[in-house]
Design goal:
single chain; 7-stranded mixed beta sheet; 11 strands; 251 residues; alpha+beta; Protein-Tyrosine Phosphatase, Chain A
Length: 251
């Protein structure tokens, strides 16, 4: 096996990208009610008329900007370079807080947020695609949160634009910060790829017992579009539900 060491940070400067959010037009105040399953097909047909005019109106009625809290930690000077996009930031009240390293107050920040499940709090973590200089923080989060399943919904590049740094080795073992990641197995399917990693935290007081982490990477989402058929995504979702252990940390 090949064992390589990746430092916690890099010196090269990268131009920060911005996600272009869809424009919203002013719309009159209107209340939208839940749709029953029996009426869903008919409502979809009605709202799809006129090139989806009613869907656009409902979307435009959503509040824009950060309406649920503050993003002070994400906007700190020391943390701004850790964000892939300056306008997609975690709220202070729901962000994942890492263990501080050597008294570095800003080492507890990562662009990732908890999301509640249907019955369980903090069932999921929504994280940005790691940048090259945040990969070590990403694996530290995986270890600290006892995560056993990673669901990856983006490709590394879209139209030659970087969306996510490859945070795993193709083969052998790499060490990111204090976390050693070894490739155990991988399976390439039509719509997604399954990779299994053995990870181990190398602390100053000794190496911790290893853990198995499964990554499910959906690969058939087209650039700047949506899949032609939902079948691939539905099969992928079914696989995600069967892989994650009930005793594991957030997905």
């Amino acid at each position: 096996t090949v064992d390589k060491k990746i430092p916690n940070g890099i010196l090269e400067e990268q131009e920060q990208q911005t996600v272009v959010l869809l424009p919203r037009s002013p719309s009159a105040s209107k209340t939208y009610f839940p749709i029953s399953v029996d009426c869903l097909e008919e409502e979809t047909r009605i709202r799809s008329a006129d090139d989806g005019k009613l869907f656009r109106e409902e979307f435009n009625s959503l509040p824009s900007g950060y309406t649920q809290g503050t993003c002070q930690e994400a906007n700190k000077e020391e943390n701004r370079e850790k964000n892939r996009y300056p306008n997609i930031l975690p709220y202070d009240h729901s962000r994942v807080v890492l263990t501080q390293l050597d008294g570095n107050l800003c080492s507890d920040y990562i662009n990732a947020s908890y999301i509640h499940g249907y019955t369980d709090n903090n069932k999921f973590i929504a994280a940005q695609g790691p940048k090259q200089d945040t990969v070590a923080d990403f694996w530290r989060m995986i270890w600290e949160q006892k995560t056993a399943t990673i669901v990856m919904l983006t490709n590394l590049k879209e139209r030659k634009e970087d969306k996510c740094y490859q945070y795993w080795p193709d083969q052998g073992c790499w060490t990111y910060g204090n976390v050693r990641v070894a490739v155990e197995d991988f399976t390439v399917l039509v719509d997604y790829t399954i990779r299994k990693f053995c990870i181990q935290y190398q602390a100053s007081d000794g190496t911790k017992p290893s853990r198995l982490v499964t990554q499910l990477h959906f690969t058939s989402w087209p650039d700047f579009g949506v899949p032609f058929s939902p079948i691939g995504m539905l099969k992928f979702l079914k696989k995600v539900k069967t892989v994650n252990s009930s005793f594991a940390g957030p997905i």
